[in-house]
Amino acid sequence: MIQADVQGISQQISQAKALRRQPMSKLDLREAKQFLPTTREEMDALGWKQCDVILVSGDAYIDSPFIGVATVGRMLEKLGYKVGIIGQPDVQSDTDIKRLGEPRLYWGVSGGSIDSMVANYTATKKFRNSDDYTPGGKNTKRPDRAVLVYTNLIRKNFKNTVPVVLGGIEASLRRVTHYDYWSNKLRKPILFDSKADILIYGMGEQAIRDLTQALDKGSDWRDIRGVCYISKEPVESYHQLPSHQECLDNKEKYIDLFDLFYDNNDPIAAKGLCQKVDTRYSIQNPPCDYLSEPEMDEVSALPFTRELHPYHRPEGKVKCLETIKFSIMTHQGCWGECNFCAIGVHQGRTIRTRSEQSIVKEANQFKEYKDFKGIISDLGGPTANMYGYECNKKLKLGTCDHQRCVDSRHLCSSMKPDHTRVIGMMKQVRNIDGIKKAFVASGIRYDLITEDKRKGYSYLKELVEHHISGQMKVAPEHTEQHVLDLMGKPGKQTLVDFKRLYDKLNKDMGKKQYLTYYLIAAHPGCEEKDMHELKRFTTHELKMNPEQAQVFTPTPGTYSAVMYYTEMDPVTRKKIFVEKDIHRKEKQKAIVQAKTNFSSGFSS
Prior knowledge:
The chain is 36% helix and 14% strand.
């Protein structure tokens, strides 16, 4: 890995510590009462001797519904528990981890909103200097493998303490044997690498509630859905995954493991999973139930301040607030199943939608903030146009094994896209008095627009006329069919058809709005010749120079990472080309980003 300048980082850390040692002012303390406590002073002001739960995160404490730790804290607060939060503790001392004392029930540990290794390193393993979830923006606070580091920090400073519970995306995606790109090897389930006791996976709202109540009552929690733990004995009724050693010895066994892991993430259809790791067993209970629409509304209505806690402010602003502060999450889940994306494994492949009334209420609340200028930054979710409809078969029976809702060649006949409800929701929001614009910045599946013969055109017309800020983001990722097949993305003709419709709508409305294309280089199966073909397509068909191209990163919890490690197509088990040389990966990206002189048609 190419590490950042150690001396420079050490100086930045020392400066940040000096700022944070200053006690909060009386004004800050008064404002802090609106947050969950993060200092002993706040606990004293609340009359608390001890927290029931202390949450430790790789992010600064940002009290937003887009921040998982803040959402967990607010949910537990509503249930009557005393919750404290420690954001980005100093791992070189005991000052931060000890400042709230020891919790009564458990420690909750998260790497933060972004996997710490993805946050700290680029796809070519260069250290990132910036962090949008760190005050001041300097990447000096989030340790590599944050979940492991924070758990060790707790164990070092609190002997024989209450249970340590892991959660968040970093832990969730590493709950079974997984390929780790940064060490280039298979690693054990994260509970074995850490010193934690329990892991809550996925969104886990129900599991968090059930586990907290069980620990409070002193009752057995080992049958709670949505949790993982280590056992001396197997659970015979669960799916028996290939052992960790079998995966090390045989790459096809690792594919077998991932197939079972991937197919057992739905609360209706899934069974529990059991995997032997050395002499013990990793136990994953079936997933917890998804939230209903009223429950989604209830979580969204929790009293978030949508601000950075005053404790962190001397260090500077957090960049992520620029986009999330006045954004609205309309739903959870995605059934797009792009092979390089872990949303399906972490959030689930079934859409959970908030009601229009809940969304409108949240938009109205924005007007109470002095810095709200009438602009909603984003009105969407993992895929904006999946709001408001689902496959009836999936809702009754759960997700299908080895049958996708959509792949690179077709949409399942049972899945019928219908943009009726999302159109109505967008109209309601933009018609609120005081709302000037409600942008849709989340990703759009253009293949769903062209597939919806009744309302797809109307939806795109609404976007073009009211909800785009000069450009619309789409993610074709590639154009060569064999690469698209491995990615799980739709064919290029769908993109051509969509672009034609988009351009026509803009011309008819007299608007000059553009499409921004997200592309991936060096995905498994992609060679330099494929990038040249992609470049040819963007030049001659799209008439543009791609700027949003990135080198593929193999992240845990994705089929693409399985392909990268095994160098096999996980469906056919046939060998595929995988580019692993960093310089040649960068060359693939450079090919598609080369500037084209459109008057001559040649790349420079």
